[in-house]
């Protein structure tokens, strides 16, 4: 509950560019990011800045108003690590821009190799229908192996630990908060004495990782400065030795097969 002089419903908008930062304050630090087509509610606009809520996870922040456009119904989402938007259905055409995994698009028609959207043409092999959800969040996250680490990042151009987990879970139709402390509080049930399995989550203070198999983690981390696999025991010991503390929780999610 908050106190304010007035409350508004919020105007529906979406992001018009490949990726943008959600800021703590106008011109301030990055908190998280949103990508093309992200559904946003604008609550206030002032001096070229909009205070918005990302509808995917409820995260709020400031974004430059000129990066927003009228909301449109999306039909498809980019499910490859990244793709290109072309002015015509021709791979040799000069691309208009790059799009990240998770970008939402309105497909108008589908040809032999390209899908026509209201923004241009995208290889249809890089898209899936919005209602055709994935089933393994780790498989989704593994498409981002090698993506550079970026604190607060949520795209194929740069991503952090909680951004990676969120990318995987949202693709599977599972609600997921934006930050690792929120994820630890909201996701799954304690693993207890059970052995880890693919899809489990390991948490530290300020960090989260997927379990890829009984002996391996997948996470976006500063040690590799990228999304990478790392031995589970090796990671637990390394993180403790560098002074970031022990594992604070091990969680298991209920995943739809």
UniProtKB/TrEMBL annotation:
Enumerate the PROSITE patterns for this protein. NLPC_P60
| Alphabetical keyword list | Hydrolase, Protease, Thiol protease
Pfam families per record: NLPC_P60 (PF00877), SH3_16 (PF18348)
- Determine the domain of life of the protein's source: Bacteria
Q: Which family does it belong to?
A: Belongs to the peptidase C40 family.
The reply to whether Protease figures as a keyword in the UniProt entry is yes
User: Locate the NlpC/P60 domain: which residues?
Assistant: 131-254
Write down what this protein is called. Answer: NlpC/P60 family protein
Entry GO MF terms:
cysteine-type peptidase activity
**Which source organism?**
Rhodalgimonas zhirmunskyi
A Gene Ontology biological process noted in the UniProt record is: proteolysis
The record, for PANTHER family, names: NLP_P60 DOMAIN-CONTAINING PROTEIN-RELATED, PEPTIDOGLYCAN DL-ENDOPEPTIDASE CWLO
Signal peptide span: none
